[in-house]
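Subject: sequence -> C-alpha cells, single chain

Hey, anyone have a minute? Need the predicted structure for the following. Not urgent.
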Amino acid sequence: DWTVPQFLSRIVQTSRRTSLLEVVKEGDSNDMLGGVNVLITVNSTTAYHALVAGVPVITLDYLSKGFGRFDASRYGGAIAITNPDPSKLREAIINVTRNEEVRRQLHEGAKRVIERHLYRLDGGASERIAQVLLQLSRGRAPKSSITPSPGERMS
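Reply:
Had a minute. Here:
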C-alpha cells in the first residue's frame, strides 16, 4: 500500500510537482470546484457538480468495489481509470489538462450525462418531484414522462 504523497509522486514523477496537487477530504465542493483543473474521484455526487461546472472528471473505477460506479464515462463525460497503474492516471491528467480535443469530447459527454441523470438545470426539479408524489398520493400512477415543457404543469 502507498501513502497519498507516495502515490501522487508516482503519478507526476517528481516530488516538486506533487505540491501542485491537493487531496481534499472535506469542505464545500461548490467553492472548491472554481479553483480546480480536474476532479479525481471514486464515486461522488461532487462529480456531477464538476460536470455542471465544466470541470473534467477522472474516476478511479478500480477503487469503487461495493460503492457503485459513477457511470459518466459510459456517456463520454468522464475518463474512467480501471487499472491501478499510476501511469494511466498520469496520462488521463495530461489529456484532460492539455489536450483540447479530449476536453471538447468530455464537455460533449458531460452534456449527455447531465441530460440523462440531472434532466435539465432549470430550477424545476422539486416541482416535478412534488407533482409525481402528489399523483402517487392520489392513487394515480405518474405519467410516463415527468418532463413537462417550461410553464406546463402536470395534472
